[in-house]
Amino acid sequence: MTSDTPDLADYDGDQDELADRHALRRVAGLSTELQDISEVEYRQLRLERVVLVSVWTSGSQVDADNAMAELKLLSETAGSQVLAALVQRRSTVDPATYIGSGKVAEVKEVVESTGADTVICDGELEAAQLRNLEDRIGVKVIDRTGLILDIFAQHAKSAEGKAQVEMAQLQYLRQRLRGWGGNLSRQAGGRAAGGAGIGGRGPGETKIETDRRRIGTRIAQLRRKLRDMEVTREAKRAERRRHEVPSVAIVGYTNAGKSSLLNRLTGAGVLVENALFATLDPTTRRSETSDGRVFTLTDTVGFVRHLPHDLVEAFRSTLEESVEADLLLHVVDASDPDPQGQIDAVRTVLGEIGAADVPELMVLNKADVADSTMLMALRANYPEAVVVSARTGRGIDALLQRIDERLPRPEVPIDVVIPYERGDLVDRVHKEALIGELEHTEHGTHVVGRVRPDLADELARYV
Ligand SMILES: Nc1nc2c(ncn2[C@@H]2O[C@H](COP(=O)(O)OP(=O)(O)OP(=O)(O)O)[C@@H](O)[C@H]2O)c(=O)[nH]1
Ligand SMILES: [Mg+2]
C-alpha cells in the first residue's frame, strides 16, 4: 500500500499518547488553561467507583443485558470501576426520580455498602431527576449523555476536537445548570479542599446567573473558533476535490475496527484500542485500488446508540467528511452480540448528518472471532457485504476489489501521446486513469484509456 504522508513513523507516537492519556487520569488538579471558568469542574468529574442503574421499559431481557453491558464498557472507558449494576423493569421512567422511588432507597443501600462515589443512569435524565436522585442517594449522579461527553473530553486531542467537545459539554451543562448548581459548588469545594464536600450548599440564584452568562460567552467564543477551523478544513477538501481524487470514509459503531481497517489498508499507524471512542480526530490517508487508482480513506469518530445530540451538532464539521465522500465503508463488528442494533444506530446518525444517500459498502469485520451462525445471518441480510478481518488480513484483497468497483469511474476516453518531458502528466495518468494500453514510443508515452474531465482537458493537446 502506498502513502505519501507520515505513516509508520507515527505509530509509536500514538501509543505514547495512549500511555499519556492513562497517566493523565491519575493526576488530580486543573490545567492552567481552564482555571478561571466554573464549568471546568464539570469536565474534571472523576468517575471512579460507580454503580450503574437502568430502567428497562421495552425489548427483551437480552436487549436489556446488552444495553447494560455497553453502559459498563462506556463507564470503564471513562476510567471507572463498576461495582454493581441494577436494572428495574417498569413501563415508563419515573418523572421525578427516573427509577421508582422505592428503588431509590435500594440503590442508596448498594451505594453505601459498596462505597461507590457515583451513580450512572442509562439514558438522558432531566435536570430535576438528577438533582432528586443526588439529594436522596447522597452521591454524584450522572446520566449516559454526561458519561459520553466525559469520554470525549478525555480523548479529544486536536484543538478542533477539544473545542467541539467543550462546546457540547457547555450546551449540556447550560440546560442543566439549575439541577447541577449544587454539584458545581460541590465540585468547586472539592477542588479547593481536595475532596468530598458532599452536601455542601448550592449556589444562590446569582451564582447560577453568572455561570450561565459565562457559559454563553464561552460558547460564542468556541463557535467563532470552530468556524475559523472549518475554513481551513474546507480548503483542504476543496484541494482534494480539485484533483478529483475519489474519497472513501470509514464509518461505523465505536470499537467496530475502523482504525484497524485504515491501518490495514494504508499502514497509517492510527491508535487502535479496545475501548470506546479511541478515535475522535479524522485521519485521512491515501490508498490504491487493486488496479492502482488512488483514493483517499478517512477514519472517523465512532457512533453509538443515542449519541448525544449536542455532540452530533458539535462534530458536524468533522462528520461532513462522510457526507461528502464518494463511498462509505460501513464497518460492522460481526462478533458483537447485537450487530443489527449497531447497524441501525449508525444509520440513524448517518441520517441525522445528511449522509443517508451516500453509497455504502458494508464491511463485516472481526470475521476471525465472529460466531459463524451470526456471520451467516448477516450475510443473508446484507448479501453485498464483504467479510474481512482487519486483524488477520482475511478478505482485504476482496475489499479493495469492491472499493474499486464502487468508486466513481473516470469516463472520458483518451488516446494520447505524452511527450517525455511531461513526466508529471504520466504520473497523474498512472494514479487517476483507467488504463487500456500504455506503451513507450519514439515521441512519448502512448496511452489509451479513460480519465476524468479535468485530466482530459490537460491532455487534449497531446491527442
Ligand atoms: N479479533 C479481531 N479484533 C479486531 C479486528 N479489528 C479490530 N479489532 C480489535 O477491536 C478493537 C477496536 O479496534 P479499533 O480499530 O480501535 O476500532 P474503532 O472502530 O476505530 O474504534 P473507535 O475509534 O474507538 O470508535 C481493538 O482491540 C482491535 O484490536 C479483527 O478483525 N479481529
Ligand atoms: Mg478508531
UniProtKB/TrEMBL annotation:
<keyword id="KW-0479">Metal-binding</keyword>
<comment type="function">
    <text>GTPase that associates with the 50S ribosomal subunit and may have a role during protein synthesis or ribosome biogenesis.</text>
</comment>
<dbReference type="GO" id="GO:0043022">
    <property type="term" value="F:ribosome binding"/>
</dbReference>
<dbReference type="GO" id="GO:0005525">
    <property type="term" value="F:GTP binding"/>
</dbReference>
<feature type="region of interest" description="Disordered">
    <location>
        <begin position="184"/>
        <end position="207"/>
    </location>
</feature>
<feature type="compositionally biased region" description="Gly residues">
    <location>
        <begin position="191"/>
        <end position="203"/>
    </location>
</feature>
<dbReference type="Pfam" id="PF19275">
    <property type="entry name" value="HflX_C"/>
</dbReference>
<comment type="similarity">
    <text>Belongs to the TRAFAC class OBG-HflX-like GTPase superfamily. HflX GTPase family.</text>
</comment>
<dbReference type="GO" id="GO:0046872">
    <property type="term" value="F:metal ion binding"/>
</dbReference>
<keyword id="KW-0460">Magnesium</keyword>
<keyword id="KW-0342">GTP-binding</keyword>
<feature type="domain" description="Hflx-type G">
    <location>
        <begin position="246"/>
        <end position="411"/>
    </location>
</feature>
<dbReference type="InterPro" id="IPR006073">
    <property type="entry name" value="GTP-bd"/>
</dbReference>
<dbReference type="InterPro" id="IPR032305">
    <property type="entry name" value="GTP-bd_M"/>
</dbReference>
<keyword id="KW-0547">Nucleotide-binding</keyword>
<dbReference type="InterPro" id="IPR016496">
    <property type="entry name" value="GTPase_HflX"/>
</dbReference>
<dbReference type="GO" id="GO:0005737">
    <property type="term" value="C:cytoplasm"/>
</dbReference>
<dbReference type="InterPro" id="IPR042108">
    <property type="entry name" value="GTPase_HflX_N_sf"/>
</dbReference>
<comment type="subunit">
    <text>Monomer. Associates with the 50S ribosomal subunit.</text>
</comment>
<dbReference type="InterPro" id="IPR045498">
    <property type="entry name" value="HflX_C"/>
</dbReference>
<dbReference type="InterPro" id="IPR025121">
    <property type="entry name" value="GTPase_HflX_N"/>
</dbReference>
<dbReference type="Pfam" id="PF13167">
    <property type="entry name" value="GTP-bdg_N"/>
</dbReference>
<dbReference type="Pfam" id="PF01926">
    <property type="entry name" value="MMR_HSR1"/>
</dbReference>
<dbReference type="Pfam" id="PF16360">
    <property type="entry name" value="GTP-bdg_M"/>
</dbReference>
<keyword id="KW-0963">Cytoplasm</keyword>
<dbReference type="InterPro" id="IPR027417">
    <property type="entry name" value="P-loop_NTPase"/>
</dbReference>
<dbReference type="InterPro" id="IPR030394">
    <property type="entry name" value="G_HFLX_dom"/>
</dbReference>
<dbReference type="GO" id="GO:0003924">
    <property type="term" value="F:GTPase activity"/>
</dbReference>
<protein>
    <recommendedName>
        <fullName>GTPase HflX</fullName>
    </recommendedName>
</protein>
